[in-house]
Amino acid sequence: MGKRVAMEVSIAIAEAVKLARAEVIAAYPITPQTHIVEHLSELVANGELDAEYVTVESEHSAISCCLGSVATGARTFTSTSSQGLALMHEILFIASALRLPVVMVVANRALSAPISIWNDHSDIMAQRDIGWIQTFAENGQEAVDLVLHAFRVAEDRNVMFPMIVNIDGFTLSHVIEPIVLPDQEDVDAFLPPFRPKYKLDPRKPISIGAVGVPEIYFEAKKAQDEAFKNSRRVILRAWKDFATRFGREYHPVETYRMEDAEVGLLIMGSLAETAMTAVDKMREEGKKVGLIRLRLWRPFPTKEFRKAVSGLPVLAVIDRALTPGASGGPVGTEVRSVLYHCARRPRVVNFVAGLGGRDVTVEDFEEMADRAFFYKKKRPKEAYELIGVRES
Amino acid sequence: MIEVRLHGRGGQGAVTSAELLAISAINQGRYAQAFPSFGPERRGAPVMAFVRVSDQVIRTREKVYHPDIVVVLDPSLPTIVDVVKGLKENGWVILNSHKDEKTLREVLKGYVGNLAVVDATKIAMEVLGLPITNTTMLGALLKATGLVELNYLEEALEHRFGRLAEKNKAAMKRAMEETKVYQ
After folding, report:
1. A157 in contact with B at a CB cutoff of 8 Å?
2. CA-based nearest residue in chain B for residue A360
3. What CATH number is given to the structural domain containing A20?
4. Least Cα separation, residue A170 to chain B (angstroms)
5. Is A10 inside a domain boundary?
6. Residues of chain A whose pLDDT is less than 50?
7. Domain extent for B138
């Protein structure tokens, strides 16, 4: 089932979009997302993917085009990074509020300034509240699988929300690794054609995007909020069905060697693999360390997360973005809030690491775990600590 | 797990070499990773690329700090870059150079470990007509370490270079013959 290939992760993502039979792609190239859209444009130009590839003059136009396209009932894909995502910002809220299920891959990259093309999560963390379902991939295989999952979930009539699959720029996007590309017929069986209940059609005119006067705006937002929370069921069901068909299991929260752990590292994205290596090394030295990875970021998997940390003494949350003046990194503050009402909760220590492409090594993860052990007995003075910054 | 660090100059194909190695290993049924050093891509500037090859799933995303094998595509690099930095004990340094062993060990600040040398620029000029040494240096790497199987590497070259594959294969094979190994 499927074909094992040696492929750059970006190219594999484009192949997944092809397998999903996307009908419209509108995108503007930006490092490190470029290879994804470059390959998609090749696939369309070569006639291998029967889709409309719309070249646009900016990311603002790209996402606007995607909204129009998906409103007519076309399966629609885009991809961006960093400043490009920031430029899309105002339209992203409209996509979710109008229930327009665009699928987007974000190759995560730092925001300027200083200008940086390298990886961290500051671009996506600035888009926390846009109301899109968001997942984070750990490796190339997962990136491919999450793209297929995203189309299935986003377009489900019980969901109808846009979805972002996050992949670490360069650290994942530019790596060649072994990936199993599923067969077309299996993808077709997993992913039915997009059939929205309402769509823009000149023969049956409707209006999308009307004004929300004070008498209706709040109710509309409540409806959106409820629907977003309810998307959880479909997200889980789609992963279950994916496992049955493709043999690869996905959960909102993954744990690694957490049994009897005294310190749990929590991270999102591809650096979790480096963290696993650190966990293995520390376990060999008799240190009880485990790893928790959030695959689903929005809606936040509260239930699964609380279960994963139950009985854990210290949780070390590793953020890949800074939130100046806040009480922690974006993941750190979220996690503290989720745990506040739990009677027995781990002490949360928050680290910020790997900004703007600074490598986070196995040693760095060991250092964070060691510090977390230290904080078992002593409360940390600061809300968060930076790891891997040169002091001289 | 075997870790490789390739040093080259922008335009010499260090990243392509890394990719070809990973593709060959994966097509052999093994696990591998190839990735560039993610810098601004400028022709002529020192660049690095990395490869990991393993029989088990590879679970790390950090750069290669302690390579088993270092491949240097450009003869001028060892004087300006510390190419042996972090090299594991019993590791390999594979150089493109026309110089003798003694001189090269001096350039490498008294490095005494495994060394393989080939005049890849000369071979590339004669066979390809270009001073692009990436595929030639793969021949030296194979001769010294046997990291991947030759037929898989040839297949990867054919896939990547199309009609230029034959010349690249010829350069690679000539390097396999001409590489001098000092252990």
Report:
1. no
2. B62
3. 3.40.50.970
4. 7
5. yes
6. none
7. 2-182
Mean pLDDT over the full length of chain B: 96
**For chain B, how long is the longest CA-to-CA vector?**
43
Asked if residue A293 lies in contact with residue A241, where contact means CB atoms within 8 angstroms, the answer is: no
* A43 to chain B, closest Cα gap in Å: 18
User: Choosing among B15, B26, B59, B61, which should be mutated to test the A contact, i.e. which has the most A CBs within 10 A?
Assistant: B61
Q: What's the domain range around A100?
A: 3-246
- Write out the E strands in A9-138: 24-27, 52-55, 76-80, 103-108, 133-136
Distance CA B75, CA A163 (A): 49
Whether residue B40 is predicted with pLDDT greater than 90 in this model: the reply is: no
- Which residue is associated with the tokens 């010294």? B144
Query: Domain holding B52: CATH number?
Result: 3.40.920.10
pTM value surpassing 0.80 = yes
> Are B62 and A362 an interchain contact pair (Cβ–Cβ within 8 Å)?
yes
Chain segment B146-183, per-residue pLDDT in tens: 999 999 999 999 999 999 999 999 999 999 999 999 99
Those of residues 236-295 in A touching chain B at CB distance below 8 A are 270-271, 273-274, 276-277
| Final residue in a domain of this structure, among A216, A246, A276 | A246
Residues A20 and A132 in one domain: yes
Residues in chain B: 183
pLDDT of B44 = 85
Contact A362 B34 (CB under 8 A): no
Which phi and psi (to 5°) does residue A97 adopt? -70, -30
pLDDT of B41 reads 67
Per the structure, how many domains does chain B have?
A: 1
- Are A177 and B19 within 8 A, CB to CB? no
Distance from CA of B23 to the nearest CA of A (A): 5
**Residue A3 in contact with partner chain B when CB distance is under 8 A:** no
Sign of CA dihedral A52, A54, A60, A64: negative
Say if residue A144 is in the same domain as residue A168. Answer: yes
Q: How many domains are there within chain A?
A: 2
Torsion A33-A243-B35-A276 (CA) sign:
positive
Last residue of a domain, one of A246, A263, A282: A246
What is the least distance, in Å, from the CA of A235 to any CA of chain B?
26
